[in-house]
Amino acid sequence: MDIWKEIFEKVRKTPFIDTHEHLSEESDRLSISPEKDSWISMMGPYFSDDLISAGLDEQGRAKLLDTELSLHERWAVVEPLWGAVRNTAYAKALEFSVKELYGIDEISFSTIDQIQEKYLEFRKEGFYKEAFSSRYAHIESCQVNSLDGAPFRESEQPELLMQDLSIVPMFAREEVVLGLSIEKFSEPANISVQSIDDWYKVIDWYFVQYGEKAVAVKSQNAYNRDLDYDPVAKESAAPLFLKRIKKEEMSEEEMKALENHLFGYTVGKATEYNLPVKLHTGYFAGFNGMPMARVARNPGDMSNLCMNFPNTRFVFMHMTYPYESELLALTKHHRGAVADMCWAWIIDPVAAQNFLKRYLVTAPLNKILTFGGDHSYVECTIGHAAIARRGIARALTELVQEEWFTLEEALAVVEPIMCGNAKEIFHID
Ligand SMILES: [Zn+2]
């Protein structure tokens, strides 16, 4: 009996619930005129970070992203470094997408025009559904963290593109990613904010409006600060909030204390609404800007969060890479900790495979989520899903070969780790 074949077949047939994407709406994609819409733009997010790491300068990157230039001019930026980066999973995922969706075996100078033709052909009404139902993607639904500025995006396809409610603007300072001003954020709620109590009302309004529709709340504030949201009492926070309203100068310490307090209020609300709290942890997207010392402090802060908010479900995203061992210990120890492998299969696919293998013989089966594409292009999600499926099947095959699992036991965990856990954790019918 071929263990790999049987396991892979089961993994292929089982749908993913994709727990993290940044996909725009299909109609937004289709509103771009075909002349301006080139497949090579898919190289912008993630893949171009590898190009910079390999030596490309920022001028070159700007050229790669410039939609006014021709496909050939843009490819000319990639070509000299293609050999250096095509082995990374960022590139492999792109190649898998091209193979799966367009039937083209590789990305090279000889195929770029053909890819463009197929890219435009595929990009038509209904293509999101078509992409998700392709052979190796087989994605039942995904969870979108919209980056278009609004804390919650009402989707045209709410059953396919479920949405996270972004909580960053509820507690974080204005300058950070997705941070919003008090004025702008309170406007839809039609509340004039004069005190911290008014601000609570604004936060409450967002939960009343979107709490039922959202699958989770999400914060990527780890790009801007440590996750040490230690409890701060209202009495200390209220005067700080007044300072913020009056736009008075605040020390870093004061700003942080205010954020900590509002984070606590917001997480309390999410918990009241039975919404898991998704937190970016670990590795940074982008280039030349990741403070490793801060990233290294994430696991310690995460364990404090679990202890300070014992009734909250924290979904720790991105496998906290490269601190996945710490995440494993946290998930094993704290009831509130859930491990989410979104993005991980294209950051470090071998680490992801090993993490899953270790997770399954270390921590409870019901707290692992194995896939989120973390893409803004639906096409890219397909290649990523193909890599994840292979990794999951390989991890399970090795567990059988090493006699931790029988084949039956391995087959039995496929459904929970690919979709069942997500349905339970995010209350999806
Ligand atoms: Zn993301």
What does this protein look like?
By secondary structure, this protein is an alpha/beta fold. The chain has 2 domains: 85 residues; 299 residues, Alpha-Beta Barrel (TIM Barrel), CATH 3.20.20. The chain is 52% helix and 8% strand. The protein has an 8-stranded parallel β-sheet. Helix 15 links the parallel strand 6 and strand 7. Helix 17 crosses helix 18. The longest helix is centred in the C-terminal third of the chain and has 24 residues. The radius of gyration is 22 Å and the shape is globular. 44% of the residues are buried. The model has no long low-confidence stretch (mean pLDDT 96). The site of zinc ion (ZN) has 4 residues, from loops.
CATH superfamily of the largest domain: Metal-dependent hydrolases
Low-confidence stretches: none
Number of helices: 19
Ligands, deduplicated: zinc ion
Tell me the CATH topology of the largest domain: TIM Barrel
Radius of gyration: 22 Å
Q: Sketch the major β-sheet.
A: 8 strands, parallel
